[in-house]
Recover the amino acids of this structure.
């Protein structure tokens, strides 16, 4: 499984390495808000699994596994538009407030993913736009399996 390491700097920029090789941005520098684009590039638009490590400035480390998306073939013959829409998956991040136990397993409702809690008790999840679109109400829940902490988060695509 490929391994992506993100090292965050004080100014919010970061470096990315995939299996030890640098992942260079198209222009400028990688920033925190670039993480979904980096993940898309590293997973070839979510077609392969990926182990991700984020090294924060304060020394904390987040580790997560990004699973590939299981794409179902369309019921009708795929048009060029269908192919273009499924070719690229964009990611968004959902973050819950403090209250989680550092390192605990955090369920992401509708239990489509799990994430680990940071040492400060926060948790985050990275979702695809397809997953968000399936959430008709536009909300998701992060649930700490040890702490019992539940955070309701509004998700905007």
């Amino acid at each position: 499984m490929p391994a992506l390491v993100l090292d965050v700097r004080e100014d919010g920029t970061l470096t990315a390495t995939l299996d030890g090789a640098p992942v260079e941005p198209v222009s400028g520098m990688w920033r925190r808000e670039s993480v979904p684009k980096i993940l898309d590039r590293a997973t070839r638009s979510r077609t392969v699994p990926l182990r991700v490590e984020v090294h924060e400035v304060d020394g904390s480390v987040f580790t997560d596994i990004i699973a590939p998306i299981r794409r179902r073939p369309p019921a009708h013959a795929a048009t060029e538009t269908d192919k273009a829409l499924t070719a690229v998956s964009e990611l968004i991040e959902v973050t819950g407030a403090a209250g989680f136990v550092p390192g605990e397993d955090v369920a992401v409702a509708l239990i489509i993913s799990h994430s680990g809690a940071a040492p400060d008790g926060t948790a985050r999840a990275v979702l695809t736009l397809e997953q968000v679109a399936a959430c008709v109400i536009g909300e998701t829940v992060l649930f700490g399996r040890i702490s019992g902490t539940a955070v309701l988060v509004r998700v905007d695509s």
Q: What stands out?
A: The two ends are 29 Å apart (CA to CA). The first strand starts at residue 3 and ends at 8.
